[in-house]
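Batch manifest, entry 17 of 40.
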Amino acid sequence: MKFRRQKICRGTATFLSVPSRTEAYRPLFFVSRPHSFERGFTLIELLVALVIITLLSIAGYRGLDSVLQTREHVAVETRKWQHLSFFFSRLNQDIAQAILRPVRDETGSIVRPAWIGNAVTVGESDAELVFTRAGIPDQGVALQSPQRIGYRLEQGTIVMLRWPALDQALRAKPVRYTVLEGVSDFKLRYLDKDGIWQQQWQYPTELNKLPVATEVTLTLAGGEVITRLFALQ
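Output type: structure tokens
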């Protein structure tokens, strides 16, 4: 608060006069502010922003979809090769345990060789590969004795046949197990003791003759061709 000096002619004395309340609270200066106008987005700016967000969303969706498809493809391929590995491992164990044990058919009058390799199958109980294998000691009583088994391609699936006994009873049917799916072709050939590959193995006069090795060629439904060689003990 400022005081102003005011002279009053009362002799020689000088008094200070106090400003009034209105004058005391009167602002000393004024700040003039320019008028500000708030400006929003135009329709074109909103459309541009919407287009950018849409493009980013599409790019993100395509990236995520590509990752999911790649993941699914890897999972399918992994399962396929796992099944192939299991099939070849099982076939290798069976072939390695092949034994010289001819069997009689269901009529009891015909003796079949211990190992039969057919180029063409005839009948639902026939197979491309049929042989006698030794028993499995640690797989229960039913599997401890020698077994008559076979491998057959049936409607894109390799099926393993297991007969209930070596010398088959009348009207005996093998039990069927699916061991591999997605196969379009199943071929075998057999190496004899002279080093010659045979397309089939049928020696009615030599019932105890086994090949030295067996070559298995699979053609998968996707077109892949896989060949494995198995040696007999």
